[in-house]
UniProtKB/TrEMBL annotation:
It comes from Fictibacillus enclensis. InterPro entries: Spore_coat_CotH_CotH2/3/7. This is Spore coat protein.
Amino acid sequence: MSKGMLPEYRLSVPIKGAKSIEKGRWASQPVKGTLKTENQSYETTVKYRGAHIRKFPKKSYDFVFPSSRMFTGAKRIHMNAEYNDPSLMRNKLSLDFFRDIGVLSPEANHVTLYINGFYQGVYLQLESVDQLFLKKRGLPDGSIYYAISENANFSKYNPTTGKAKRSVTSGYEIKYDPEHSFHHLRKLLNCVLTSTDKEFPSKIEPLLNLESYFRWLGGAVCTQNFDGFIHNYSLYKNGETGQFEIMPWDYDATWGRDIHGDVMENKYVPIEGYNTLTARLLLHGNYRRQYRHVMEQLLEEAFTIESMEWKIEKLYASIRPHIIKDPYKHYSLSKFDKEPEYILAFIKKRNKYLKKRLHRLQ
């Protein structure tokens, strides 16, 4: 692959004609095909992914591979169109940011995608958070739960309606669990929901990796993912320590833009974030100080113009040659060209805003 070129993925499926591909109604149900990358070929099953994003002209996809011939050690990969992000890089920028600050995070890399020879544009290949995710990192076996809706807000109530949820585990799905149950997650949630303030620290500490949680919280607050506190995350229970760690997911609505790609002002999300678990933790002075220490470090070292500028410019330069001919790009090339400056301006303003509010974590 030439320097500066994105990996090229070529999918072949038994669908005839360019119009069938363009209309985007061919993968509502799983379709078998072949995915070729460089000199490798993989049998796969492909299907549209997401709910509302299926309505966009540029579709996102799930690829599933047989256990006998997995894709670089993965049984499943996700191809995200990043349709509403004018930069096409916010999701990757976020997930890399979390990894750099010490939070478990899926890998994300830009590629170009062709379907039956027709160029589909620039995509973000996302790693699936599953048992193989753990194995790849040498992590102990454990349970993985996905937060799939706003009900995953660590509360008894739906945050929109205010009505009681049907179950404490509403809003979650089991991605992987050796016991095929919500037992471990239910134990964590019941601790959050039923412990008294006095007994909460002694009950939560064996169940939650606090350093990891506060780093995740700091990352979500800095990048300002409005939805990231009540879904857009996964939970991993380490089978050796018994503690949960939280991981980010779906972070395209960040760095100063919302889920529609519109402006999100830098003061929108408070320094404390928001969900019931975080609120309960920050009631205790020692936890507030621990979180403040994490935030001070992020605002001085990781979430700065100096740290982020070269990463943004590198991503921008790698994408630009391929987005020019992207047939489904949502925004103009001129807007794409302004995004690095826009993101850096957001970082500067957001950093200043958060530093002025560190006193609230005394």
